[in-house]
From TrEMBL, chain A:
Source organism per UniProt: Candidatus Kryptonium thompsonii
Protein name: NADH-quinone oxidoreductase subunit N
Compartments, record wording: Cell membrane; Endomembrane system; Membrane
Transmembrane segments: 20-36, 43-61, 81-102, 114-131, 170-189, 209-227, 322-341, 348-371, 391-418, 427-446, 466-488
Function: NDH-1 shuttles electrons from NADH, via FMN and iron-sulfur (Fe-S) centers, to quinones in the respiratory chain. The immediate electron acceptor for the enzyme in this species is believed to be ubiquinone. Couples the redox reaction to proton translocation (for every two electrons transferred, four hydrogen ions are translocated across the cytoplasmic membrane), and thus conserves the redox energy in a proton gradient.
Broad enzyme group: translocase
Gene this chain is encoded by: nuoN
Automatic annotation (TrEMBL), chain B:
Protein name from the UniProt record: NADH-quinone oxidoreductase subunit K
GO terms, molecular function: NADH dehydrogenase (quinone) (non-electrogenic) activity; quinone binding
Subunit structure: NDH-1 is composed of 14 different subunits. Subunits NuoA, H, J, K, L, M, N constitute the membrane sector of the complex.
Reactions this protein catalyses: a quinone + NADH + 5 H(+)(in) = a quinol + NAD(+) + 4 H(+)(out)
NCBIfam families found in the cross-reference section: PRK05715.1-2, PRK05715.1-3, PRK05715.1-5
InterPro entries per record: NADH_UbQ_OxRdtase_chain4L/K, NUOK/Mnh_C1-like
Membrane topology type: Multi-pass membrane protein
TM helices/strands, residue ranges: 6-24, 31-54, 60-84
Any Gene Ontology biological process: ATP synthesis coupled electron transport
Gene3D superfamilies (UniProt xref): 1.10.287.3510
Top-rank taxon: Bacteria
Protein EC: 7.1.1.-
Biological function: NDH-1 shuttles electrons from NADH, via FMN and iron-sulfur (Fe-S) centers, to quinones in the respiratory chain. The immediate electron acceptor for the enzyme in this species is believed to be ubiquinone. Couples the redox reaction to proton translocation (for every two electrons transferred, four hydrogen ions are translocated across the cytoplasmic membrane), and thus conserves the redox energy in a proton gradient.
Length: 505, 100
C-alpha cells in the first residue's frame, strides 16, 4: 500500500514539473535577492525570466498528454497546458515591462523589488494551479493564491494613496466574493458528500436534486468566479484597482488573473453541470443537467457584462480606467464563448485569449510609456501625440483597433470565431448585442486615436524619443497582433486541439 | 442528537450577519471581522455536513478555510496599516480617491 503510494507520488511529481520549476524559481528569486540584491538591483527579474523559460520548456514537453495526478486533485491536459502558455507569456512580458517601469524605479518599491518578482511568480503559480485543478479544495486554494498575491501587488507602491486604496478595495471585494464561493462549495459538499468535480457530476446525475438547490449553490460559486473574471454584478473592484495599482500590475491582472478565472470557470461548468450520458445532435455539444438554466444565466451575465463595461467606458478620461472598463467588456465577449456550451465556443474563447494577451498588454505598455514621458494617464495628454511620437501612436492605434475588433488584426479573428460559434449555436440575440457593443466600443477607442492624430498638442510640442529597448518591446507585441490577423490558421488549429479536457468529451 | 438543520440555520444566520456587516459597516477592521464571521459560518456548515454525511472530506476543507482566512486577514491588516499611514483613517467612506 505504502509502496504504491510512493510510486504514485513520484509519477505525479514527474507530471508536475512546470509547477515545481516555478516554485523553485520563486524561492531562488527571494534568496538571491537577499544575497546579491544590493549589488545587482535587477537580479530578481533576470532569475524570473530564466525560470519562466525553464518552465516553458517543461510545459511544452507536457503538451498533448492527458492524465490525472495527485489522486484526482489535479489534471494535466491540453486545455490546462494552453492556459499555461498564456500565463507564461504574459508573466514574461510583464517582467520585461517591470524592468522598464518608472513607477517601480522611482518609488520606495525599488527597495523591495525582489519581492515584487516573487509575487508575480506566485500569482503565475496560482494561475497554473487554477487551470488544472479538478477538486473544489484545490480550486479554492489556488484562487486564493492568485487573489492574495494580487492584493499585495496592487498595493505595492506603499506611499501612493491610490495604490493602497486600490489594494484595500480589492481585498474587501475579494474576500466577500470568495466567502460567497466557499459557502456555495459547502452547499455542494452537503448535497453530494464529494469535492472532486467528476464525483460531484456523477452524484448530480444519479440522485436528481431539486434544481432550486443546485441553482443557489451554482450562483454562489459563480460569485467567486465572476469576481475573478470581473463579470458584471461582481465588477465593482475592477476600475478602482486597475486605476490605482502600478500599471505593470494592472496589465498583469487584466490578462493572467482573468484567464485563470475563465480556465477554472469553464472546467467547473463543463465537468459538474453537464450530463455526458446524453449526446446532442451536434458534435462536441454539451447537454446541461435537466432543469438548470445554466445557458440562460451565463448568457445574461455575458450581455450585462459587455454592455455595462462598454457604456461606462465612454465617460472615462483616464486611460487606465478606460482600459479597465474595456477589460470588463472583453470578459463579456469571452463569456459568449461559454454560452455556446460546445467545444466550438471554447476553442473560440482560447483564440480570443491569445489575441487579448497581445493587444491588451500592448495597449497597457503604450499607456505606461506615455505616462512615463508626460506624467499623466489623462486623455488630454494624448492630444497631438501623433506628431510628437509617431511610432508609439501608430502602434497604440493598432492595439486599439485590434481591441475594437477591426480587420486585419488578431482581435478581429478572435471576435469572428466567437460570433460564428454563437450563430452556429443559434443564440442570435446575444450575437446582436455583441455586435452593437463592438460599435459602442469603437467610439471610445477611436476617441483616443482622434486625440492623437487630429488634436493640437497643448503642452510642449517637442518630440518624445524612446530607447531601442522600448521599441523592441512594442514590436514584439505589435507583430503578432498584425501577423495573426492575416495568418491565423496555426492559431486556430492549436486552439481546436487544445479544447480537450481530461475525462471529458 | 441535534438535527442537521439547526446547524445549517445557525450557519446561515451567521453568514448573513457577516455579509450584511461587510456591506453596511464603515470601519475597515470591523469589515475584516465580518469576513472572518462569514468564513467561520462556512466552517460550521462544513463540519455539520461532514458529520451528517459521515465522511471526513468536509472537516479537511475546514482546515484549509482556516489557513486561507488567516492569510487573507494578515494581508488585509497589512494593507490597512499602509493606508492608515497615508490617510490617518480606516473609515472606508473617507478612502475615496478612486471613483467612477
Amino acid at each position: 500500500m505504502e509502496e504504491r503510494f510512493i510510486i504514485e507520488l513520484t509519477q505525479s511529481l514527474k507530471n508536475f514539473l512546470p509547477e515545481v520549476s516555478l516554485t523553485v524559481t520563486l524561492s531562488l528569486v527571494i534568496l538571491l535577492d537577499l544575497i546579491f540584491g544590493r549589488r545587482f538591483k535587477n537580479i530578481g527579474a533576470f532569475v524570473s525570466l530564466a525560470g519562466l523559460v525553464v518552465t516553458l520548456f517543461f510545459t511544452i514537453k507536457q503538451y498533448g498528454g492527458s492524465y490525472q495526478i495527485f489522486r484526482g486533485m489535479f489534471v494535466v491536459d491540453p486545455y490546462s497546458t494552453f492556459f499555461k502558455f498564456v500565463f507564461l507569456l504574459s508573466a514574461f512580458v510583464i517582467v520585461i515591462f517591470s524592468l522598464q517601469s518608472y513607477e517601480l524605479r522611482e518609488t520606495s518599491a525599488r527597495r523591495r523589488i525582489g519581492e515584487y518578482y516573487f509575487f508575480i511568480l506566485s500569482l503565475t503559480l496560482g494561475a497554473f494551479l487554477m487551470a488544472g485543478s479538478v477538486n473544489l479544495i484545490m480550486m479554492y486554494l489556488s484562487l486564493e493564491l492568485v487573489s492574495i498575491s494580487s492584493y499585495i501587488l496592487a498595493g505595492y507602491i506603499k506611499e501612493s494613496e491610490r495604490s493602497s486604496e486600490a489594494s484595500m478595495k480589492y481585498v474587501i471585494y475579494g474576500a466577500l466574493s470568495s466567502g460567497l464561493m466557499i459557502y456555495g462549495i459547502s452547499l455542494v459538499y452537503g448535497l453530494t458528500g464529494e469535492l472532486n468535480i467528476y464525483a460531484i457530476n456523477a452524484s448530480f446525475l444519479s440522485s436528481g436534486y431539486s434544481p432550486i438547490v443546485l441553482m443557489i449553490s451554482l450562483v454562489l460559486i459563480l460569485a467567486g468566479f465572476g469576481y475573478k473574471i470581473s463579470a458584471v454584478p461582481f465588477h465593482y473592484w475592477t476600475p478602482d484597482v486597475y486605476e490605482g495599482a502600478p500599471i505593470t500590475v494592472t496589465a498583469f491582472l487584466s490578462v493572467s488573473s482573468k484567464a485563470a478565472g475563465f480556465a477554472m470557470l469553464v472546467r467547473f461548468l463543463k465537468a459538474s453541470f453537464i450530463d455526458r450520458t446524453i449526446t446532442l445532435g451536434i458534435e462536441g455539444a454539451w447537454a446541461v443537467i435537466q432543469g438548470l438554466p445554466l445557458t440562460e444565466i451565463v448568457a445574461v451575465l455575458s450581455a450585462l457584462t459587455m454592455t455595462v463595461g462598454n457604456i461606462i467606458a465612454i465617460w472615462q478620461n483616464n486611460l487606465k480606467r478606460m482600459l479597465a472598463y474595456s477589460s470588463i467588456a472583453h470578459a463579456g465577449y469571452i463569456l459568449m464563448g461559454v454560452v455556446v456550451m460546445q467545444n466550438l465556443g471554447i476553442s473560440a474563447m482560447l483564440i480570443y485569449f491569445l489575441a487579448y494577451l497581445f493587444m491588451n498588454l500592448g495597449a497597457f505598455y503604450c499607456v505606461m510609456l506615455v505616462a512615463e514621458k508626460t506624467g499623466s494617464e489623462d486623455i488630454e495628454v494624448y492630444k497631438g501625440l501623433g506628431y510628437r511620437a509617431p511610432f508609439l501612436s501608430i502602434v497604440f492605434t493598432i492595439f486599439l483597433v485590434s481591441l475594437t475588433g477591426i480587420p486585419p488584426t488578431f482581435g478581429f479573428i478572435g471576435k469572428l470565431y466567437l460570433f460564428s460559434a454563437l450563430i452556429n449555436a443559434k443564440v442570435i440575440w446575444l450575437a446582436v448585442v455583441g455586435v452593437l457593443n463592438s460599435v459602442v466600443s469603437l467610439y471610445y477607442y477611436i476617441r483616443v486615436v482622434r486625440n492623437m492624430f487630429l488634436g493640437d498638442p497643448e503642452s510642449g510640442k517637442e518630440p518624445i524619443n524612446f530607447s531601442p529597448a522600448h521599441i523592441v518591446v512594442m514590436l514584439i507585441l505589435v507583430i503578432p497582433t498584425l501577423l495573426f490577423g492575416v495568418y491565423f490558421t496555426p492559431i486556430v488549429n492549436f486552439a481546436q486541439i487544445s479544447v480537450a479536457m481530461f475525462g471529458l468529451r | 442528537m441535534i438535527p442537521l438543520s439547526w446547524y445549517l440555520f445557525l450557519s446561515l444566520i451567521l453568514f448573513t450577519i457577516g455579509v450584511l456587516g461587510v456591506l453596511i459597516r464603515r470601519n475597515a477592521i470591523v469589515i475584516f471581522m465580518c469576513i472572518e464571521l462569514m468564513l467561520n459560518s462556512v466552517n460550521l456548515a462544513l463540519v455539520g455536513f461532514s458529520s451528517y454525511i459521515g465522511n471526513e472530506i468536509g472537516q479537511m476543507l475546514v482546515f484549509f478555510v482556516l489557513v486561507v482566512a488567516a492569510a487573507e486577514v494578515s494581508v488585509g491588516l497589512a494593507i490597512i496599516i499602509a493606508i492608515f499611514r497615508n490617510r490617518l483613517t480606516v473609515n472606508i467612506d473617507e478612502i475615496n480617491l478612486l471613483k467612477w
